[in-house]
Each structure stands twice: as structure tokens, then as C-alpha cells.
Amino acid sequence: xxxxxxxxxxxxxxxxxxxxxxxxxxxxxxxxxxxxxxxxxxxxxxxxxxxxxxxxxxxxxxxxxxxxxxxxxxxxxxxxxxxxxxxxxxxxxxxxxxxxxxxxxxxxxxxxxxxxxxxxxxxxxxxxxxxxxxxxxxxxxxxxxxxxxxxxxxxxxxxxxxxxxxxxxxxxxxxxxxxxxxxxxxxxxxxxxxxxxxxxxxxxxxxxxxxxxxxxxxxxxxx
Length: 223
What we know:
Layout: H1 5-27, H2 35-42, H3 46-52, H4 56-67, H5 73-85, H6 91-107, H7 114-119, H8 124-129, H9 131-153, H10 163-184, H11 190-198, H12 210-221
Keywords: DNA-binding, Repressor
InterPro entries: Homeodomain-like_sf, HTH-type_Tx_Regulator, HTH_TetR, Tet_transcr_reg_TetR-rel_C_sf
Domain HTH tetR-type: 11-71
């Protein structure tokens, strides 16, 4: 059935809210983002927002459903890098490529990908008010767990490592790295991303470069 002008305009308004709201939420994740902020960014009134959404929580649910955040981003990228190199990646190479990918999301936000959105997750109080954020963070943990399982399947890390637990630690460290960058007013570094993605593994030292081993030794000395 052909859409009339009203339906076309309504859908365009809905998309404007979704696009503007997501960009705003990613860019200002550590500050509260109100319905007024989302409406202003979309170029519409607060009343127009409530024509399309019941609440901010409802908006977030629509946002997640509409954008269909992609999964298997990290391992998909590692598979691609392995095809390019025409040989299996070492632990050093895998960690480096994973860090490069996530760091690129961090410095090039906003993005529709789960990595950019989840790495710039709001504060605890904001999370508690919006279940959609909690689900997004769960997806972020799952994404990192897939990365750890990928390494285990290739016997690059110890078989006894728990993917889910380790993924939560990685997410917590990345979250802390980014929060710290806000506190000090200095951008997070690639090195901090690399350390977060590798420092919790029991290493197969035959597959790891001296530079990475030195990083682990220095970290252990400060514990």
C-alpha cells in the first residue's frame, strides 16, 4: 500500500529522532541526556518526541531495535586480518589488531556499532534508569567473550581462562580507561586499549613478542 504524505512525514520525524538521539547519546554518554536534549538535536519539540515515544526508555528500546547493533565485530575483523596475512595470527598480532579496531571506534565516534556505543557507556545512575543500556552493556560483554573464545580455539591463551569473566574484566578496564581520559582531560591511548585486551591472559610465551612480555612484567611489578 502506498504511503500518504502524513505517514512519510511521520516516519521521517521518527528517523530524525533516532539518528540525532544516538549521535547525542554516544557523544555525551557521561552526561545526562534528557528528552529535551534529544528533541533539540533532532530539530523538533518535546511534544513531538512524545508523539513517537512513551519515554526515554522507550526511545532507547526503539533505537536498539532499529539500528540492530552488529555482533562479532572483533572476531570478524581478526578473521579478515588472518585472510590478509595468509597465515594464523599470533597472540601478539591478534591483540594488536583488536586494539586497533576498538581504538578506531573510540576516536571516530559516533558509530552505529555496538563497540562505540558501549565503550562510551553512561554512569551507573543513568544505567539503572534505562534497562536498554544494561542490555547494550551485556552485548558488549558478549562481544569481548567471543574475542576470548576465538583466542582459545586457536590455543593462543590458556584453556582454563573463563571467557565470560575475563570479558567483564576487559570491559571494566576499557570503561575505566575512557572515564580516566575524561577526568584528566587527555585522550585514551592505543597502548591502554592494547593492555586492556591482553593483560589478563595466561600467555603462551612462544607466541608473544618481547615488547608485550615486558609490558606484562612491568604490570606485575606494580601489583
